[in-house]
Design a protein that fits this description.
This protein is an alpha/beta fold. It contains 2 helices and 9 strands. It has a 4-stranded mixed beta sheet with strand order 1-3-6-9, with no helix packed on it. The chain has a 3-stranded mixed beta sheet with strand order 2-8-7, with no helix packed on it. It starts with a helix and ends with a helix. Bound molecules: copper (II) ion.
Amino acid sequence: MVKAFLVSVVLLLLAASMALLLTDAQAQNVRTFTLYLNDYGFNASRGGPTLVVDQGDVVRIRLIGNGSGPIVHDFVLDANSPSPYDVKSRRLGRGQEQVIEFVANYPGEFKYYCSVAPPFGPSHRERGQEATIVVRARGGAERTDTVTVQTTPVVREGGQPGPQGDLTVPVVVAVAAAAVLGGAMIWLRARRSRR
Ligand SMILES: [Cu+2]
């Protein structure tokens, strides 16, 4: 009986520590921004806000197409910025949305811009559709892992953005439930064998 109780306690502690580990792995900051893709700026008719994040942050940007008529815009942070990043959204028309996400692994100050350029006349960037992202360096070794870019599907106006892929709560609940169930089974078996 006492043994069974101890086993359940150990299992519960195990579940708790796993939960802590999971939380720690996700302690990475998520920085969320919303940018309206206007003609010819971000949240503005020229230029855009300076996005400030810390190295290692997850940068999550909700992009909302807001061009006039058939004009589309995008969000690009790549070699042409210039930068070590390779982030490129879809080209969004008015009312279309996309959430892009990447890890700000490289510190520095870079330009993000719209890469749309009509067959003639100035490109959107030449019209002023660019702004600055600052990635403040964190102490310690510089990270050089590959930048990961995740994007949700384009959602039409009035639609709902795709579900966020945060599994912390379901995983913790599942592990805790398994521990409790395991403990109960061991306890039941111990009780039965005593009879
Ligand atoms: Cu544009």
